[in-house]
From TrEMBL:
Name this protein carries in UniProt: Nitrite reductase MB
Subcellular location: Cytoplasm, Sarcoplasm
Source species taxonomy: Eukaryota, Metazoa, Ecdysozoa, Arthropoda, Chelicerata
Compositional bias (Polar residues): 1-16
Major localisation: cytoplasm
The reaction(s) this protein catalyses: Fe(III)-heme b-[protein] + nitric oxide + H2O = Fe(II)-heme b-[protein] + nitrite + 2 H(+); H2O2 + AH2 = A + 2 H2O
Domain of life: Eukaryota
Organism in which the protein naturally occurs: Trichonephila inaurata madagascariensis
Transport keyword on record: yes
Gene name in the database record: AVEN_153091_1
Length: 192
């Protein structure tokens, strides 16, 4: 159990192993730019389907939590900066519209994890778009991490296991850092 042996040829020598120590025909090596294993990407893709079915409520819950923890950020949003109470925020069509837009961006990123160049380019473009927001600072992106995780946990309920929490934390960290790279213009050119 847990032991891997190299196959031997007729001459008795071990067959060539690829650079990852796997037999020929094994899945390709994981792209190091995405900090998830193939199994983790599969798990989040499967789990995300439940989030995608509840995009509105998850997004609104995320923003309500964001504003509870960071009241100063509300001033950045012209259309709903006047919404002081939780109830007003939960009922606001303007906030819902923005929340769904952000959730759609997260959806695009998570659904493109298999195409690393496309995923990174998309997240960089999201970061660049935020340069237009007067007074926006890159560190504000990090303030989304905990509200995002809390909203996902609320939506997934008992499907939000310790393992899924770890995968979602890794994923949102990757997404936020890549968006920040786009915002700050520090992204590297993707080599094909």
């Amino acid at each position: 159990m847990g032991c891997t042996f190299a196959k031997t040829s007729k001459s008795g020598s071990a067959q060539d192993l690829n650079h990852a120590g796997e037999a020929p025909g094994a899945p390709p090596a994981q792209d190091p730019r995405i900090p998830l294993t193939v199994r983790q990407k599969f798990s989040i893709s499967k789990s995300w389907k439940a989030i995608a079915r509840a995009m509105d409520q998850t997004g609104v819950a995320m923003f309500v939590k964001l504003f509870e923890e960071n009241k100063e950020l509300l001033a950045l949003f012209e259309k709903f900066k006047h919404l002081e109470s939780r109830e007003a925020q939960e009922e606001s069509e303007e906030l819902k519209e923005h929340a769904v837009s952000v959730m759609n961006s997260l959806d695009e990123a998570i659904n493109s994890l298999e195409n690393v160049d496309q995923c990174i380019d998309y997240l960089h473009s999201v970061g660049k778009r935020h340069r237009k927001i007067n007074g926006f600072k890159s560190e504000y992106f990090w303030k989304m991490e905990d509200p995002f995780l809390a909203a996902v946990k609320e939506t997934l309920e008992d499907r939000y296991t310790e393992n899924m929490e770890s995968i979602y934390k890794t994923t949102i960290h990757f997404i936020i850092q890549t968006v920040i790279d786009g915002f700050e213009g520090t992204q590297q050119k993707n080599s094909a």
